[in-house]
Amino acid sequence: MNLLESHRDADRDARRDLVDALATTPREGGQVVGLTGPPGVGKSTLAGKLVAEWRRRGLSVGVIAVDPSSKRSGGAVLGDRSRIAKPPGDDAVFVRSMAARDRLGGLAPATMEAVLVMRAAYDRVLVETVGVGQSETDVSATADQTIVIVQPASGDTLQFIKAGLMEVFDLLVVNKGDLGDVAKRTRRELRLALRVLDRADTPVVLTSGATGAGVPELVDALDARFSALGDGLAALRGHKLREHIVRAVTELYGTLHLRTLGGAPSALARLEALAPDTAPSDLLDALAPASTRR
Ligand SMILES: Nc1nc2c(ncn2[C@@H]2O[C@H](COP(=O)(O)OP(=O)(O)O)[C@@H](O)[C@H]2O)c(=O)[nH]1
Ligand SMILES: [Mg+2]
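A: This is the predicted complex of the input protein with magnesium ion.
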């Protein structure tokens, strides 16, 4: 993990080889779950309960907590560290906080790489980030499935879902279920809205991070969706990786360079045409300006 966050040129090749090896490893590795939602909705508290439930089921867990307010590289977020309490002496839980570098509210560029590494090593990988700006899209790009947490009585739920989140979530969670009727009403409204939007099959789980209620049901819902992916998992991961590479190329070389590639859709199409097991560094090379290719 230190290697991934290193900015030293000398570490660059080793880092690239590691990520390539892990991204194309035949073992599919663990299930990657994205967790996002507005500040204060209870992400960190629920993350702790999720980790505990997975551990109860005998699974190893890696957690990546992204701090969108910090632009330091690899900076630890003490608040999140202490909240997603790692059970003392439990080596099967690994918690890492990463700063969101460069971009306001986005995922650190190293996060995708960190997910690839942790996915190879842990049964479950949880990526937690606060939902601001672009970050929900970023987290869903790294995860096999993404949970968006909703605050009870947060207002017009239809508007909420429409506001650019449709492509992002696979499951919705209404948290703070211990508040009672208001949470149940919000779940009802969300289910109605999902029906209108032709997404009635989306699970809406009522949880309480405070009491842990609903967390086993949430884990079951995640497992069910993940199993349903079946053979489609490799294709989904390949597609998300390619989308990530296009974004990375845009960030690294600018929108002007992206335009020379014919825009994002055409850059993506170029990557989709390459073999499914193409290593990330080769995908990057395929879109990089000729002068920077190795
Ligand atoms: N009533 C209630 N409060 C909660 C619950 N989960 C979190 N909170 C409280 O909501 C606040 C924000 O929680 P936190 O996990 O830090 O939210 P985050 O900003 O989304 O990570 C804290 O004061 C928590 O104690 C819950 O399930 N029920
Ligand atoms: Mg938090």
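DSSP finds twelve helices and seven strands in the chain. The CA atoms of residues 137 and 168 lie 6 Å apart.
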